[in-house]
Amino acid sequence: MNYWLMKSEPNAYSIDDLRATKTKIDHWDGVRNYQARNMMRDDMKKGDLAFFYHSNCNPPGIAGIVNIVKEGYPDFTAFDPQEPHYDPKSSPDKPRWYMVNIKFKRNLKRFIALAELRQNPLLRDMLLLRPGNRLSITPVTAAQWQAILAME
DNA sequence: GCCAACGTTGGC
DNA sequence: GCCAACGTTGGC
Questions:
Q1: pLDDT of A46-90, one tens digit each?
Q2: Distance of A32 CA from C3 C1′ (whole Å)
Q3: Closest alpha carbon to C1' of B4, residue
Q4: Strand C close to A9 by CB, under 7 A
Q5: Which helix (DSSP H) or strand (DSSP E) does residue A132 occupy?
Q6: Strand C bases, protein C-beta under 7 A
Q7: Residue A36 has what pLDDT?
Q8: Is strand C within 7 Å of residue A136 (CB)?
Q9: Distance CA A142, CA A80 (A)
């Protein structure tokens, strides 16, 4: 099983939005970055766990945990000109972008802010904390996962 | 709102 | 295939 961290701007889509859905399941659409796409298309597996991270807000940090419940499939929002992430270069017969389905698992017992993560020496090598990292999806090692849970 | 760090685009 | 220009991300 793999661990991940997935960023979302809570203004656009927060963990509360996910929890408020009827099934607590939603698709993770809108990723338009090749590295993140490749991870969703090739590496994310059903049963994997991911931190739901709130970015571009005050304060940024980890809000909760989700399960991967459906593996990579074409992001249909790329086909729709009405969609904000429409991409005319992606089509149903030749999809360029992929997404997964996630399911709300739980909120962390308390929100763990980015500034706190930075202070934890066990997380020194975490991709999220690397200067200038903008990837919306990053792998998390088992050791990092446990270290973060220990901060709850 | 600023700006550093990247990714992408497109001219050559 | 190089690289400058441009756009985006996202912390602060």
A1: 999 999 999 999 999 999 999 999 999 999 999 988 888 888 888
A2: 23
A3: A132
A4: yes
A5: none
A6: 8-12
A7: 94
A8: yes
A9: 38
pTM of this structure:
0.94
Q: What is the pLDDT of residues A106-127, one digit of tens each?
A: 999 999 999 999 999 999 999 9
Q: What contacts 24+ positions apart, CB below 8 Å, involve A16-25?
A: A18/A52, A18/A66, A18/A102, A18/A104, A19/A104, A19/A107, A21/A104, A23/A103, A24/A103, A24/A104, A25/A69, A25/A101, A25/A102, A25/A103, A25/A104
- How confident is the model at residue A19, as a pLDDT? 96
When pLDDT is cut at 50, 70 and 90, the band that residue A42 belongs to is very high
Q: Estimate in Å the CA A74 to C1' C9 gap, whole number.
A: 23
Q: Determine the residue type at A133.
A: N
User: Looking up tokens 């969703």, which residue turns up?
Assistant: A40
Beta bridge partners of A61: A54, A113
Go through the domains of chain A in sequence order and give each one's CATH number: 3-149 (3.10.590.10)
B chain positions with any atom within 7 Å of a protein CB = 4-8
